[in-house]
Amino acid sequence: MNKKTVKEPFVRIVKRPYADLKVTVIANAAAVVLALLLSLLLLMAVSGLGPDKVLGAFFSASVSTGNRLLAFLQDAALLLLIAIGLAPAFKMHFWNIGAQGQILMGGLMTAICMYYIKDAVPAAVLIPVMLISALLISGVWCLIPAFFKVRFGANETLFTLMLNYVAIQIVMCFTDTWKGTKSAFGVIDRFTGSANGYLGRLFGIDIGWTLLISMLLTVLMFIYLSRTKHGYEIAVVGESLNTARYAGINDRKVILRTAFISGAICGLAGFLYVSNVSHTISAATGGNFGFTAIIVAWLGAFNPAVMTVISLLLTFVSKGAGDVRNLAGLDSSICDVVVCIFLFFILGCTFFTRYQLVFRHKADKEGGSELKAKEAGV
Amino acid sequence: MKKLLALALSLVLCLTVLAGCGGNPDEKSFKVGCIMVGDETEGYTFAHIKGIKDACKALGIPDENIIWKYKVGEDESCQTAAEDLINAGCKLIISNSYGHQDYMNAVAKKHSDVQFVAMTGDTAKKDNLDNFSNAFTKVYESRYVSGVVAGLKIKELVESGKLTDKNYSDGKVKVGYVGAYNYAEVVSGYTAFFLGIKSVYPDVVMDVHYTSEWYHWDKENEACKALIQRGCVIIGQHADSTGAPSAAEDALKAGTVVYSVGYNIDMLPYAPTAALTSASNNWEVYYKYAIGLAKEGKDVPTNWAEGYETGAVGITDLGKSVAPGTAEKVAEVIAAIKAGTLHVFDTNTFTVNGQKVTVAYATDTNGDWVNDADNAIKDGYYHESDVTMNQSAPSFSLRIDGITELN
């Protein structure tokens, strides 16, 4: 009895001591390929279309014409911009899930300026006024929960979430008042007779400003988070409040400042929606991007470069599924299902990048010695 | 960084596959895009879906060339949907709710190669865009006829002594109306309904209760209950759900004398005893015409409005509760409308502030939503939805004597 040793399990899960680039690349690539295969199979199954049609629609949806490419870039850019706004807050472990409300407040402020100022001042004055007021209101919209967090220890997750609904109601209050007995508010210039405040074309593209500002903010945020003192403070506060305090970082100041920046960038997205993209405001402004961006920021590990890839990928997938949906007359929920398949696989593959499966015989022979060697620091 | 590389590589992989696939093979065949405010569970949209499907079948357009966007709100999601439909290769885009038109117009300005029809809209004339049109049926004709059905019922109820004091206001029988929004389309509709009733039973007054929603079962149900509470014996509606007929049916079963006149769809399945009939549109007539034109690459006219003369409007089957002789009277009225001898908005049949009306404008030129041009009163009647005046959506917005707006 005593001689019998405990049999080693067939497979053991061992935490990787450090991330392995090769494994990370292979795991992510495999995740995307598997997700793609499963999505396409699903789309074929529910649409009843042949693989040629499904593949054709899926891959051409974002790029086959200039108009499609622009629609794709517009969505990806806005999604990325909002995720960029969330990144510093998340990195600081401040769970701002109020992006939707911050977008709406920024958009509403932009619309208010246009609605009431109309042609009273030239665009060169009106646009900065719109921009600054949008940034301010959205910054403050995120600053409120931050203030309650640092002052009273309030839970910012619930607080920011609830402020989304407050923002939705405020927007509806304004649009309902403006539209009067009409059934819809409509496009601002059709309502006020003035298109003053619309951002014009840039590089001959309607949404040129949106694309440019998104790219610019992505680069700036990358530098801000990785190359500045502020970025370092954010990282320390996020990792450990006590360490931050011990190091003499004014954590309250950092939290308030970062929350303001986070909200203001979401407000910038709201400004772009109203002034450059849709020229209207409603509770539907921003779609669901305020929530989708949370996933983008998380999957991108708050790294603007990775987040860029993620937002492009998710938008590409969503557009592709949307086109198959159009072709087959499916319910629009199919797009969400396909996006979720991708999220599932990409999230799932982090298991393989963080842990290693050690098989019995392998552990005895190569793997085991290798691991032991690693553990010994060889 | 590593993740980035991984994803970049996988994206390259995707794009390589893409390169081999190429564009959509169906791009060349004609496609219609449809932006619907509801889906087939909602009467108004159901009528449009049926109209488009029947029209496409008649024109030989296969089902897969009709692309549907359901439950699109009257907000920027309409723009997004329209852009998506253009990207999907649609050459004609139809939206079915009034509030869609501004968003449709904004997209139409950017895409001159695609035609846009904002059904029930009223700005195409003013907008003057080649590729943006409005269309509406002359539904006021069928509302008038549904009013005749209601009037005959009131007459029967009065003669059989079934009404109580509560049902009268200064000796006039009370009628109720559940309206969606307070503007011309609804005003024109309830006025036509009221005039239809008055043509057979003149001593009536009507209360209108707005819901500020096109489709809201609960609000319509509540509004109907409130009107029943006020003593209304007939409840008409310009709202898209079955909320009002259901409330009328419940009240009738509980012993209150009240009957319902619906809209869009046959309400008999929801109110077998209370429903008299419904005013309805036969959208297929227009859709066949407009989709046919667009398919041939021709321009869809800026405005279109037809009624009984081409079968674009009608009333649904008469319920078992209608007064005897209703079917004959209805046939007679329809024949008179078709023959042009009966005009719904005959100025001899109504007054505003006790005065006969001689001037009523049909067009809003400055965008303040108050009509200020084009006198539509000619030859003794208001020319409603007159395409010769480049008008398709209802424009009649006079508040005539005998009708009270409650909210």
List the helices and strands and how they pair.
The complex is a heterodimer of chains A (378) and B (407).
Chain A: E1 11-15, H1 21-47, H2 51-60, H3 66-91, H4 99-117, H5 123-152, H6 156-179, H7 188-192, H8 208-227, H9 229-239, H10 241-246, H11 251-277, H12 289-299, H13 304-328, H14 333-354, E2 355-359, H15 360-364, H16 366-375
Chain B: H1 2-21, E1 32-35, H2 43-59, E2 66-69, H3 76-87, E3 92-95, H4 101-110, E4 115-119, H5 124-127, E5 132-135, H6 139-159, E6 168-169, E7 172-179, H7 184-200, E8 204-210, H8 217-229, E9 234-238, H9 243-253, E10 259-263, E11 275-281, H10 284-295, E12 303-304, E13 313-315, H11 326-339, E14 361-363, E15 373-375, E16 377-378, E17 381-382, E18 403-405
Helix pairs in contact in B: 2-10, 3-4, 6-7, 6-11, 8-9
Tell how many strands the DSSP assignment of chain B holds.
Answer: 18
* CATH structural fold name of the largest domain in chain B: Rossmann fold
Q: How much strand content do the residues of chain B show?
A: 15-25%
Based on CA inertia axes, which overall geometry of chain A fits? Answer: globular
Biggest sheet overview of chain A: 2 strands, antiparallel
Q: Work out the helix count of chain A.
A: 16
Mean residue pLDDT of chain A = 88
> Distance between termini of chain B?
62 Å
Radius of gyration of chain A: 24 Å
CATH superfamily of the largest domain in chain B, please? Response regulator
Oligomeric state of the chains present here: heterodimer
Percent helix among the residues of chain B? 25-40%
Question: What structural class do you assign from the helix and strand content of chain B?
Answer: alpha/beta
> Which of globular, elongated, flat, extended, rod-shaped describes the shape of chain B?
globular
Most extensive interface: A-B, 62 and 60 residues
Strand content of chain A: under 5%
The H-and-E topology of chain B, N to C, reads as HEHEHEHEHEHEEHEHEHEEHEEHEEEEE
CATH architecture of the largest domain in chain B: 3-Layer(aba) Sandwich
Secondary structure: number of strands of chain A: 2
Q: Give the C-alpha Rg of chain B.
A: 23 Å
Strand sequence of the main sheet of chain A, in spatial order? 1-2
